[in-house]
Amino acid sequence: MNFSIDKQTLDELNLMGKFRQGSIYHMFNQVKTGGGEQLLDQMFRNPLQDVAAINNRSKVFRFFQDAGCEFPFDVQHVSQMREYLDEKSGKSEILVLADTVIKKCLSALTHDERYKRKIQGLQATIITLARCHSFLETLAPEEPYRSRINTIKTILADRRIEKLRNIDIYTTLPVRLLAHYDHLLKSRLNKELEAVLSFIYEVDVYIAVGGVAQSRGLRYAIAHPPEDNFLSATGLFHPGVPHAVGNDIYMHKDTNVLFLTGANMAGKSTLMKSLGIGLYLAHMGFPVAAESFGFSIREGLYSSINVADNIGLGYSHFYAEVVRVKQAALAAAAGKRLLLMFDELFKGTNVKDAYDGTLSVTEGFADYRECMFVISTHIIEVGAPLKKNNNIRFAYMPTVMDGPHPRYTYQMKEGITEDRQGMMIIRQEGILELLNSAQA
């Protein structure tokens, strides 16, 4: 079963994008090799759904982080080894020998580079295999990576590969020996050599992610079975916000709705994004921006934070919001265990309709105890009639006044806000005086 998430949620949380500034992928993309980047991309696009798989991957990241490893391979040599193995080799060693002799002759008579590339590819392979062997000797064969380490050690201990590893690359190889290894590595031992390259790409990702966790103060989440139906985070913060303030969030089937109020700029949207990013990374087994993070497996993540109108489909902003809520309702009604987040429901319509809509939708969502919801609003009056629902937790992002100037703590508090600084900020910015002076 795949983790369910749509493009809007991916965009709102800024999860993907190799070249997208500030994206979570960009933050973790500290890998050295092309194969490592492909593996990182695969991990980002396929969050895990198995408790053991998630926790084991987290343990592997922590293993490399604690080991303090630096990537031990030469990137150019790894790339040359990849290209060398990708070149086709004849099925017969005799044919490979004939092809090698022809390439050598052409290299002497013309500017044909194929023979030179063949030699360089084999040399790069020898160096990379030797480094891999040395690197494995430095790793403690402990869980959770013991079996993987032992598998690669077994491959490198093969007498044919061991003999290759000990070849002096600075001596000229006879054509027959060059052809022999060309056929051996690309045919008989191709599967084993691919396994070594895969190991190198894994190490690349594990070291890179562990390094990000170390430098940014991230921690590893602990996954629990879906039926536990809870999420607990302490010191949760947004990994892309400098000096971010941490918050504690706890949700389970008896308090599965967080009703969040607070002024604009108080941090409601950032808190939602922090939670969504944390949950997504946790399902990948990646480190999260929190002091601690425990969660039961979710089947998907759904957000509605920056809903825009759709001119192409003729949708107004309000209708786009309604369509988004309908999509979420269908997903919840399908019986999946989801985290769903809505920032400022129905802000594209009048206050009366927004009040009625927010109240009705929040009450309706609250009935789906297998799902978890975070719903924010400016319309604090909605909170009073919702208090009869015992599974709704009320919290707000406070505003503190320093004289005439508002200050935001970004520290969530229990209850419903009573802050109403909108008109005060309008006056503070001198908008009314500007308009009155223009009329004079």
From TrEMBL:
<keyword id="KW-0067">ATP-binding</keyword>
<keyword id="KW-0547">Nucleotide-binding</keyword>
<dbReference type="InterPro" id="IPR045076">
    <property type="entry name" value="MutS"/>
</dbReference>
<keyword id="KW-0238">DNA-binding</keyword>
<dbReference type="GO" id="GO:0140664">
    <property type="term" value="F:ATP-dependent DNA damage sensor activity"/>
</dbReference>
<dbReference type="GO" id="GO:0006298">
    <property type="term" value="P:mismatch repair"/>
</dbReference>
<dbReference type="InterPro" id="IPR027417">
    <property type="entry name" value="P-loop_NTPase"/>
</dbReference>
<dbReference type="Pfam" id="PF05192">
    <property type="entry name" value="MutS_III"/>
</dbReference>
<dbReference type="GO" id="GO:0030983">
    <property type="term" value="F:mismatched DNA binding"/>
</dbReference>
<protein>
    <recommendedName>
        <fullName>DNA mismatch repair proteins mutS family domain-containing protein</fullName>
    </recommendedName>
</protein>
<feature type="domain" description="DNA mismatch repair proteins mutS family">
    <location>
        <begin position="255"/>
        <end position="440"/>
    </location>
</feature>
<dbReference type="InterPro" id="IPR000432">
    <property type="entry name" value="DNA_mismatch_repair_MutS_C"/>
</dbReference>
<dbReference type="InterPro" id="IPR007696">
    <property type="entry name" value="DNA_mismatch_repair_MutS_core"/>
</dbReference>
<dbReference type="Pfam" id="PF00488">
    <property type="entry name" value="MutS_V"/>
</dbReference>
<dbReference type="GO" id="GO:0005524">
    <property type="term" value="F:ATP binding"/>
</dbReference>
<dbReference type="InterPro" id="IPR036187">
    <property type="entry name" value="DNA_mismatch_repair_MutS_sf"/>
</dbReference>
